[in-house]
Structures are given as structure tokens and as C-alpha cells.
């Protein structure tokens, strides 16, 4: 049908037609699968005896228990560590516990300070090693959230790995916003050039780089300013986090994953029954950084569009993979519901979570 026609189809049937929903609907309609709106106009399909809806990256495809587990980064980390999976060591503090948090952080330097859940990469402060910087970061996060997560910094290169029904579907290397010097242009000019390229490329998921106080501070750490002229091929980093919404680059890295990294990612999914789709933020040893893969966090509402539209590298049709995981291969005529977590696995998970219940009540 094509995405433009699918988008018109969704609007005609009163279904929200964002890019994610359009991609999924296009793959479903191509297979003759009925799509329809629910009361909130979300893209809905009947999978076996269950209704599954999608609203952008939000969906109910994961079980309620799985969604609750991955919502809190500190809970997820402790759960994975119980399964002997390398996960970031962290503690969530209330925003009035600055000195208690610093006492913990001093033994873990350097540290990362960030919100305990959600956040879209906002207010993530990386590589902190002195109290003044820690206090500023703690206050900035505390202004947005009642709790502040303090985490031991782990070296490595950040990747987002998409899992569908426990199997690796795609991976992207996430590169923080940056420009590459040509020996002539200032950093401000290089940013303008890259933003112009963003516009010309019409890539729907890669955003322009905002020039703000965060950029100024990050450049200062490298002894740069917006008027500096970096040498040819020299990189100037503009933001501490790699989120594409703040100008980062998503680069396809699916074929670069090592067998042990694929195994670790899939073991992570198995640790949480009912986790049918997930985006793992992994720190992988690359370019001389890090020595072992670690799980930073699990996103239960992952953005799939980045794998369809990388800044460069191969596009991965993960929307088709998702539809196939729900309904089987095209040759399989009988729809089948997503696998239900085994009752024994669910009991084991609930037992492991019992000591962490206070964290869910925050």
C-alpha cells in the first residue's frame, strides 16, 4: 500500500497516524490483518483473544508486570543483578537527600546523575567526580523529579538493542551530538551545516542539534567554545547524552553485535516474563572503551522508527518483524497471541521483586 496511502487509510478510519503506528499498520494491512481504532483512536489489532494497541511507542503488548518492572531503573538493575546479568549499580534518593547521595557517590566515582524513570535523555549528567558538579546535577534532576538516580559510571559505547519476543531484532550505535572539524569552520558554523543537512535529508527521527547552555558547558569541558575552530577530522562533542531527540546520531550496528552480546541481551529479556518488546540500552566495549557489556536500562516502550531510519547504515524492517511475532509467518494462516509468561516464571519474578516493593510505591 505504501506509507502515504496507509496514513490516509488510518485517518479515514479515525486512527492516530503517527509514524510508528503507520509503519505497523502498513505491514499488518499488507498481510490482510484488520486494524481498527479503540476509544482513544489508538491503532488496535485482535491477536488471538486479546486486543493489542499501539500509540506511538506506547503499547500494551508487554504484560502489566513487565511494564512495572522496567519503569524504574533501580528496580530493573537489581532484578538483573539477581540473575547474574551485568547491570549498572545505582541507588535512587529523594531530592532532599543530597548529602546521603553524595556519601554513596564518593565510593563509586565517577558517577552519573539522572531521573529514575522516563526522561527521554533529559538531565542526564555523566562522569561527575566532584561535589560542586554533583550538587548542581542533583538539584537539576530534583527540580524535575521527586527522586534522583545516582549510578556508577560504566565505560563503553552506548547501543540500543531492540528485542522482539526475546530475540534481537536490530541494534543501533548511539552517538552523542557532535560535529567534525574541517580546520576552517567554527563550531557554530559546523552545527549550522549539520542542522541544514538534517533538514535536507528529511530523516523523520533525527532532530536538529539545539544550541543552548548544555552545549556551551560540554564544549568548555573540551576547552572549546562556539567560536573555536577544531582541527580537520577533530570531533567536538556537543551534549553528554546520545538521545537522537537532542541531536544524537543513530547508526545501524545490528551486524556488529558479538555472539556473547546477543546472548546477554536475550537472557535479559528472559529475566522479565511478559516482556515481549523492549529496547535495551547497552554499554558495549568498543574503540578502547569498556571491557564487558553492561545493561544500563530497559525501555518497555522502545522507539522502533530509529531502526527504520538510521542516520546511516542499513534500514531494518522491525515493524514487519513485530507483526510477524504477533501473527506468525505469512504462511501461517491462524493468528496466535503473544506467548504468555509461564506461571512458574511469574511466581519466581514476584518473589524476587518482593523486597523491592517499597520502590514501586514512590
Automatic annotation (TrEMBL):
GO terms for biological process: SOS response. Residues 77-327 form the ATP-grasp domain. InterPro entries: ATP-grasp, ATP_grasp_subdomain_1. Residues 328-342 have a biased composition (Basic and acidic residues). Residues 328-362 are annotated as: Disordered. Keywords: ATP-binding, Ligase, Nucleotide-binding. It comes from the Bacteria. Residues 343-362 have a biased composition (Basic residues). One of its GO terms (cellular component) is cytoplasm. This is D-alanine-D-alanine ligase-like ATP-grasp enzyme.
